[in-house]
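step=predict obj=Transcriptional regulator, TetR family n=202
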Amino acid sequence: MENALKVQKGRPREFCVDQALAAALGVFWSKGYEGASMTDLTEAMGITKPSLYAAFGNKEALFHKALDLYEAEKLEYTREALKQPTARAVAEHFMRGAIDAQTSACDPKGCLGVISATACGAEAESIKADVIQRRASSQAALVGRFEQAKRDGDLPDHVDVAGLTAYLYAILQGMAVQAGSGASRADLERVVETSLLMWPGR
């Protein structure tokens, strides 16, 4: 009777959750949300579909967890950029950090956020909304940093801070698309150098 009352423990997982999530991130990053099939994911993760569902939930939940990992590991440079001493240095750190992330030899090319935000179809709507919401949060932080630069006299009074932020993001997203299309590091470096020549200053 005593044994019958004991709760049976489930079998321990036979895979590393962190490694599996990193593998899923690689698939989503290279194929986008809609382009990544469950077969692609399970093969890359080295697990079965039931194991995927048990550990991560459905494909959508897995993507959100992969996006969390992407932001934590691959976008660290964006948080460091905000700490730079001038607005120009912030922009430069953003762009050069993006080049490192987008042209890494061990990661897919381009940007997971850009790939996924351009996804279409009803299935991807919540994914697109999540990516857009995360980007809006990052842009708000950048607007705040540039507003501070304006108060500090680091940016001219006439500068439209929201417009400047949108301009920087347009450059970053364009670089991501180019990287995903085969642009070289040197090509992207030229984009950064040209953008910095146009940066507003006193």
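step=describe
The first helix runs from residue 2 to 5.
step=end
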